[in-house]
Amino acid sequence: MKYVLILSILLLSSFYQDTGITQVTENDFIDTHPAILIDSTNRLWVIWTSQRDRNWDIYYRIRENGQWGDETRLTTDPDSDFQPCLVEDTHGVIWVFWSSTREGIAHIFCKRFTGETWTEAEQLTYTSWNKDPAALIDSNGHILLAWIKYYSIWYKTYDGTWGKEYQISYQWADDWDPELGLDASGRIWLTWTAYGMIPYEIYTGEWTEKPPVLSDRAVRSYGPGMAIKGDDVIVFWFTDEGLVYRQYTGEWQPIEWFPIDQEKVEYPAVCYGEDGTLYLAWCGSDGSRAKTREIYLVALKERGSSYIDKR
To answer: How would residue 172 be classed by pLDDT, with cut points 50, 70 and 90?
Structure first.
């Protein structure tokens, strides 16, 4: 695992202190749309989409006991596989969901890792086109899967078998990039991209009709990533100027910039570790390779500000 050679971060916020920046991928391809997970054995999973040989596929790496494993290719279909997400169920099984065009149009597929091997890919949607999956384990231990079907957000649950599909969003006609989270009170949080804004909803028995907007309506905003610790929520997203975030601690705090000295910083992904460390991944370019994008990872901890130079 290489540490970033020309990267530095200045945290202007008083919320977290950075502990280091790691470059997860290093190649001559486009790596994008990362997702991250800390599993029940404290392994850190980083999964992403990579464009190689004129095709998109899913790759991942695992950090265990401080050591990174090799890059592993999860999909090998000649059609495109992209935009993965992953969760761990109550039995310790890792589920990966993604979009694939292997049926001629985009549909949602999944694989499960039982500790030794991956299951075969399973198709989960069959009508219209479907992409941008997001998933969580709800307070009943069931999987809640959300995704975009023809510009609207839909969901279904898994309790041993997959249930019916239900539509969440109606009023937004251009929805993308849903993200799900569960707080300690059992509330389900949903955020997504809509017309260059970042709205959100809190599910407590029904979905709201007119969700509020987290982002500045005057600034085009995309690709939210969300993490929850207790009942506190943090949402990152990207703009044309880079990453920003906003934190909920009983009420929403002001939007904060997260400056990164890179080009095309996009698609943040976040999750909390057991010790309260917040892990942030994104795709970006340090400018050393033309037309390439890499996946980067940083760990954020105590409040304060720090200037981190790559070592």
So the answer is: low
